[in-house]
Design a protein that fits this description.
Blueprint: E1 2-11, H1 14-44, H2 69-82, H3 91-110, E2 126-129, E3 141-144, E4 148-152, E5 163-172, E6 175-184, E7 197-202, E8 206-210, E9 215-217, H4 221-224, H5 226-237, H6 244-276, E10 281-286, H7 289-293, H8 298-304, H9 306-320, E11 323-328, E12 352-354, E13 361-363, H10 364-380, E14 399-404, E15 409-414
Parallel strand pairs: 7-10, 10-11
Antiparallel strand pairs: 1-4, 1-6, 2-5, 3-4, 5-6, 7-8, 8-9, 12-13, 14-15
Helix pairs in contact: 1-3, 2-3, 5-6, 6-9
Length: 421
């Protein structure tokens, strides 16, 4: 089974946009009501048996079952008789909102996520049609149940032979979008280790360094526009909350955030395709991204978007038949890739790797990428010589070109002690 999602912008009239906004608000209220019902049940089980709280007490029968998706879906059918607004959206759309809450609790139990929170106005920005038909997708329009045909900007064609599974309507600052999920009943074999192999080390001084000497400079997507964002947010704080001018200022802030996110994603896509060019295996570090985001350099780590880049790189490798795997990131900057000797910790200011045992000298990030490559090859059962690399001696890596992606320039970097003189 092979699944792809295609996104198109909706050319919606003001009447259609009002319907979308109304459906989002109804879904938000259903989500909050179901969450309150579950939260009250949990709170009622925390009360002491022999005493009542002086602040609050949840009076729920001890035999009352725990609220689940199936139970709340049945209650939703009964509630439509009392609240006619619940009849406006399609029934399955509201059921998907309850399923969204169920998944939030599952993630809390299985992955130790936080307790689900209530959604304030504007926090729910999408709703789903889980069962659709192929006939509902035309060349330049899509049929939505209870809404009708909507015109879309047909920026690309959807390949034939697939089954349309679901629609997702998404609200962004730049407009409304529809995500069409298409599924093909075919078996897609995973790429096997073959061809040229590279290791990739990511960082903040340089976004990525490869084992063959390519160093990619890190663009500062958020930091470069931070002053403009502060100015717009300052204007928001000076407006009366809830007024039309406040909404206009909020809209400008949202547009800038979307511009930053789109720029980052576009650059990640281009970089991923560049790294896949001419390579058969790519190995990256298995980093603790949550820990990095909470550190002293958390803002810059989030600005770089390492997690999104790894996901995009993995998808790009799958499309282009390149083998992708994550390896341990333990002490990659403390081991010499030439003799495997541990050189000890390096400060962030030290940008050159010099081995006291064998004398191998290269860029620090390139050396870490070479260690990642060695670990990746060991994981797939290959050796350096089997892949045609021949190890990392001084003579073969005397000088290389260090390229800066994004500025269109390159500079020479000495990779050993002999080339420095």
């Amino acid at each position: 089974m092979f699944t792809l999602t295609y996104e198109f912008k909706i050319k919606a009239s003001k009447a259609r946009q009002a319907i979308f906004e109304d459906w989002l608000e109804i879904n938000r209220r259903v989500y909050n009501y179901a969450l309150r019902e579950r939260k009250d049940w949990y709170e009622s089980r925390k009360c002491q048996v022999n005493a009542c709280s002086l602040q609050k007490c949840f009076v729920i029968s001890a035999n009352a079952p725990r609220p689940t998706y199936n139970q709340q879906s049945k209650q939703l059918t009964v509630a439509k008789k009392e609240y006619p607004d619940l009849k406006k959206p399609q029934a399955q759309v509201l059921q998907q909102t309850l399923m969204r809450l169920e998944k939030a609790f599952v993630l809390m139990w299985e992955r130790n996520y936080g307790f689900p929170r209530f959604k304030k106005t504007g926090r729910i920005r999408s709703f789903v049609f889980p069962q659709v038909k192929n006939e509902w997708v035309d060349d330049s329009r899509v049929y939505l149940p209870k809404i009708g045909w909507v015109i879309i900007r047909n920026s690309r064609s959807i390949p034939s032979g697939g089954n349309v599974k679901q629609f997702r309507i998404v609200k962004r600052a730049s407009g409304w979008y529809i995500q069409i999920t298409v599924c093909w009943d075919v078996k897609t074999p995973s790429p096997i280790p073959n061809g040229n192999a590279i290791g990739i080390d990511v960082g903040l001084t340089s976004f990525a360094a490869t084992s063959n000497g390519l160093v990619i400079k890190r663009p500062k997507f958020f930091v470069d526009l931070q002053s403009k964002l502060k100015s717009l947010q300052r204007k928001v704080s000076r407006k009366v909350k809830g007024s039309n001018n406040w909404k206009k200022a909020q809209y400008k802030v949202a547009l800038l955030h979307e511009r930053i996110a789109n720029t980052r994603k576009n650059w990640h896509l281009k970089t991923a395709h560049q790294l896949c060019e001419g390579n058969g295996m790519i190995f990256v570090e298995n980093l603790n991204l949550i820990g990095l985001s909470r550190g002293i350099l958390g803002k810059h780590c989030l600005d770089a978007g390492f997690g999104q880049f790894f996901n995009i790189l993995k998808q790009t490798c799958f499309k282009r038949g390149v083998y992708f795997e994550k390896v341990s990131a333990h002490k990659t900057s403390q081991i010499c890739p030439n003799c495997r000797h541990e050189t000890g910790k390096k400060t962030l200011a030290k940008r050159i790797h010099t081995c006291d045992n064998c004398g191998y000298t290269t860029d620090r990030d390139v050396a870490a990428a070479q260690v990642v490559l060695l670990r990746g090859l060991a994981a797939v059962g290959h050796t350096v010589r089997q892949c045609g690399l021949g190890g990392f001696p001084h003579e073969q890596l005397r000088t290389r070109r260090v390229k800066m992606l994004g500025e269109g320039k390159s500079s020479s970097f000495p990779l050993n002690q002999e080339s420095q003189h």
